[in-house]
From TrEMBL:
InterPro entries: Ribosomal_uS15, uS15_NS1_RNA-bd_sf, uS15_ribosomal. GO terms for biological process: mitochondrial translation. It comes from the Eukaryota. Its main location: mitochondrion. The lineage of its organism: Eukaryota, Metazoa, Ecdysozoa, Arthropoda, Chelicerata. It comes from Araneus ventricosus. The keyword Ribonucleoprotein applies. This is Small ribosomal subunit protein uS15m. GO terms for cellular component: mitochondrial small ribosomal subunit.
């Protein structure tokens, strides 16, 4: 059972080509990933100091090499992400202790989504596969929060889209949209791929039969002529 499952995963699911069996694997692209983001990265000035060093008076009067060492140019990915989060929250928060409003939650989801897009080339194979699962979940949660904010305060909703550089067009209330499910989408894509493969093989076999039709008719004509001659020689009445 597990050997059949492993061979099916190799032929259909994995996004590369099976060099041993020669089967073409199914390439899956989720077109809605990041469609709301007009930019795909968290932009920040790298000359800013690292987290928890922005209020240091000694660093303000320090040498340029010391400032460069404590700047974001030598910071890790987590530190840069933390500075982006703080600067964005300062623009979005209604007050300094606002950490749970809809605007702040949407901003945090946006930072996570753009971070995955920005640093996906630095991730390993397992992290890339994991990001394909996490990204749709984060985008669905953000879309849900955007719909809630639009219903509660449309002016605040439009202001937030402009601040975060987002493009979001919700569906009308009369239109029902099916929730994204990776398992069912994968099954539907596999079914479509198999149906297309069967149709292509049938079409190729039909063309091959059409090429053999002329020789078949010529051979049939010769056989019928031979049968007719044999009947005449044997005086067989039909």
């Amino acid at each position: 059972m597990f050997s059949h499952l492993h061979s099916w995963l190799q032929r259909v699911v994995y996004p590369k080509r099976n060099e041993v069996g020669g089967h073409r694997r199914l390439h899956i692209n989720w077109p809605f990933l990041g469609q709301c983001d007009t930019i795909k990265e968290n932009s920040i000035d790298l000359s800013l100091p690292k987290p928890d060093f922005e209020l240091s008076d000694e660093l303000k009067n320090a040498d340029e090499k010391v400032k460069q060492y404590f700047s974001l140019q030598t910071a890790s990915y987590g530190e840069i992400k933390e500075v982006c989060r703080r600067h964005l929250l300062q623009r979005i928060q209604r007050h300094p202790n606002d950490f749970n409003s809809l605007e702040v939650q949407i901003a945090l989801r946006t930072i996570q989504i753009r971070s995955l897009f920005q640093h996906k080339e630095r991730l390993g194979k397992w992290e890339i596969r994991l990001s394909r699962v996490i990204l749709p979940i984060l985008i669905q949660k953000r879309n849900k929060l955007l719909k809630m904010l639009r219903e509660m305060d449309n002016d605040r909703y439009l202001w937030l889209l402009e601040e975060l550089k987002l493009y979001f067009k919700p569906n009308p209330l009369s239109v029902w949209t099916e929730r994204y499910c990776k398992k069912w989408d994968l099954r539907n894509l596999t079914k479509e791929y198999c149906q297309k493969m069967i149709a292509d093989k049938k079409a190729a076999y039909h063309e091959e039969l059409k090429k053999q039709q002329v020789d078949f008719l010529e051979e049939k004509k010769q056989i019928l002529a031979w049968i007719e001659e044999e009947e005449k020689a044997l005086n067989v009445k039909q």
